[in-house]
Write a structure and sequence with these properties.
alpha+beta, Pseudouridine synthase, 6-stranded antiparallel beta sheet, 3 helices, 18% helix, 31% strand, globular
Length: 159
């Protein structure tokens, strides 16, 4: 299975790379806890590529300007909130992430861009059909507030 995501993050991450950082299990309080369930950190790997960047002449936090980037993400493993947690781990949290992000930047996007959502979206999903074995590919562009935010920064995304 292959998944492709787009996200707007705080700061300028490297042009590309991999985040190989084990993640501890995050449980839902109502989740069944079987006998083989463990709280030990699990392998987690995410590849990323920076697609665009922008610097705004606004001091949202402690710096005189605010930097943001559009990144493409490909999770290789599938841990709960893996992309959000991995980007926080490399100090480039996703805009709109109330748990792993930074409130000042989230509020800035809400107040100035009318964007009140997590700027993370799955844009491509590919898998082998379980019966026919045929490769299935589903692609969807971002829409709504996410698309409007990208347009405001002049970021065109091609599929």
């Amino acid at each position: 299975m292959r998944k492709r995501y787009l996200a707007v993050v705080r700061g300028y991450p490297p042009s590309e790379g991999s985040i190989d950082h084990p993640l501890t299990r995050q449980r839902d309080p109502y989740e069944f806890r079987g006998t083989h369930s463990s709280m030990e950190p699990q392998e987690a790997l995410t590849h990323f590529r920076k697609l665009a960047e922008v610097e705004l002449p606004v001091a949202v936090d402690r710096y005189p300007c605010s930097r943001y980037a559009l990144v493409e993400l490909e999770p290789i493993t599938g841990r709960r909130h893996q992309l959000r947690r991995h980007l926080k781990h490399i100090a480039h949290p996703i805009i709109g992430d109330a748990t792993h992000g930074k409130g000042k930047h989230n509020r800035y996007f809400a107040e100035h861009f009318g964007c009140n959502r997590l700027l993370l979206a799955c844009t491509e999903l590919a898998f082998d059909h379980p019966t026919s074995g045929q490769r299935m590919e589903i692609k969807r562009p971002v829409s709504g507030e996410f698309a409007a935010t990208l347009a405001r920064f002049g970021w065109a995304v091609t599929q």
